[in-house]
Amino acid sequence: MTYPRAILFDLDGTLIHSAPDLHAAANVMLGAMGRDTLDLATIISFIGNGVEALVERCLTATGDYDSRRDQPALGMFLDAYAADMTTLTRPYPGVVAALEDFRTAGVSLGICTNKPAEPAREICNLLGLSRYFEVIDGAMPGHPKKPDPQPLLRCCDLLGVSPLDVLYVGDSAIDYQTARNAGIRFRLYSEGYLNDALPELPGVDRFSNWAAHGIAIS
Question: N or C: which end of the chain has fewer CB within 10 A?
Fold first, then answer.
């Protein structure tokens, strides 16, 4: 089996099922602001564009959103999430075994996520995943987020590989568009947080089971 020289992964909804803990933190924030809580499916539909967008969507869904008035909401969410980051979050079945296979094969591995950089690295540490990755790159203030290609291209630079030698694995239309914008091959994990259909993506570029991921390129 032949793998790409390097594989980059999205994190939430791709390697880990983190929505239950994000859901809990969002409802802590909403409760502190006197808002109604939201169900898990609604929170999942808000995931993908970063925590700022998640918070804004939560507030919009429960009333209205004003960026100046509601500025403390982001801090409330991040504090609640940091306190209970891995209570319910786990890698998807088969992820660890797949990462072991890739590492044994000598593939360079990295993470490119819209999750803030510090929580992304912390959650990988807590779940025992950090040892597999040479790069764990998350959102940073003042830097563009996916679907802008810059985060993905920055990860390629950090790994020291050409985008032509990289495969990006994600679970969303945002991940797909990011890969297209960066000129990088894409593979969809279809059991994550896909909120928009991708009819243009061939079946060979999708997988639903990490134990049979089909990420080999030949």
Answer: C
**Average pLDDT over all residues of the chain:** 95
User: Which domains, ranges and CATH numbers included, belong to the chain?
Assistant: 6-17+89-212 (3.40.50.1000), 19-83 (1.10.150)
Contact present, 186 and 170 (Cβ < 8 Å): yes
Please indicate whether residue 137 is annotated as part of the active site: no
Q: Which of 10, 21, 70, 175 is catalytic?
A: 10
ω before 149 within 30° of 0 (cis)? no
Q: What is the pLDDT of residues 43-90, one digit of tens each?
A: 999 999 999 999 999 999 999 999 888 999 999 999 999 999 999 999
| Residue 216 near residue 3, CB atoms below 8 Å | yes
The closest of 181, 146, 125 to 49, measured between CA atoms, is 146
Task: Please tell me the distance from the alpha carbon of residue 86 to that of residue 18, in angstroms, as a whole number.
Answer: 8
Contacts of 1 (CB under 8 A, 6+ apart): 105, 216
Nearest Cα residue to 187 out of 122, 69, 102: 102
Residue 142 has pLDDT above 60, yes or no: yes
In terms of DSSP H, where are the helices of 105-212?
117-126, 150-159, 173-182
